[in-house]
Design brief:
It contains eight helices and 17 strands. By secondary structure, the protein is α+β, with helices and mostly antiparallel strands. It folds into two domains: about 250 residues, Aminopeptidase; about 90 residues, Peptidase M42, domain 2 (Elongation Factor Tu (Ef-tu), domain 3), CATH 2.40.30.40. The longest helix has 22 residues. It starts with a helix and ends with a helix.
Amino acid sequence: MTELLQKLSSVCAPSGKEKAVAEVIEKEIAPYCDSVSYDKIGNMTAVIKPRKKCEKVMLCAHMDEVGFMVKNIDSDGRAHIVLLGAVETRTLSGRKVRFLNGTTGIVTTKPIHVLSEAEVGRTSPADKIFVEIGAKDKTEAAQYIKIGDFGTFEPKFTEMANETYAGKAVGGRACVSTMIELIKEAHAAKKAKTLKKECYFVFSVKREIAIRSFFAVETAAFHIEPNKALVLDTAPVCDFLKEELMTGAKCGGGIVLAPADIRTIYNRELFADAVKLCEKKGIAYQNPTFADLPGGEGGAIHQNGGGVPTLSVGIPTRNLHSGAEIVKAHDMRAATAFLREWLISDQ
């Protein structure tokens, strides 16, 4: 688990530039799948089918991460950037970042010593965030970067106490890692002739820059036309104070079964069955106590075609969309156990 998560989180693949991580994922799963293909928008779909025709199930985890793109280079060689996704900007100043071409930079903002009273306590607006690469002017900077170049936080995987892991994109890649393990188990179940679902595993793109009107995963759902779907994604952690536990997930508390988010109310039957399954099998789970969570890919999948019953499962992630996200192996194991029972075992 640790080795695969480290390998995945070390790959730089911001929204719109997922090829590098897609290649790593495909190499891991190809020996276990009937087929692996890409649609025109970049989503990867891995298929495992039993010999007999049966229920068609779609499972989804996004493979992109938050990052940035160069929109301009000023006369003194600094790069002006566009943020890709809801990047955590409160801790952005001084962070080391890496462009996909290997160039290293440092994020810079207005120094705290010269902030006005009105600016103190506010996050830096995106148009006031720059990346310093050390170039003396625009001409020299052009030797290292160009407009349209992509970048992410510097990869730095850290293993801490109690099987706790930190690093850029760790939350999303924990979901990808879990899906990879599930593919291997589905393959084993097919060989043992115990797999009773036609499985479509989708590794989607551009999730972090998705807006309410469109998610790239809609394209995959349109082509697959599943009977039901499950979305595996990160769940924001908010567990430092007791009152915060009423509005967020707890790191180490198990998978997050969200009854709803701002895009949809998840299928009532699937949600109720998921809770029963966790309680029956002793799988740690938790529910956020409010419905206005950020809308995920499930909101796009469920309204596809004639409608798709959809369930959302989250892996609790602290410091979400920062350069040092934190997850726990306990929650990853809970996700793997749940998905195994949900997909392979007779419930």
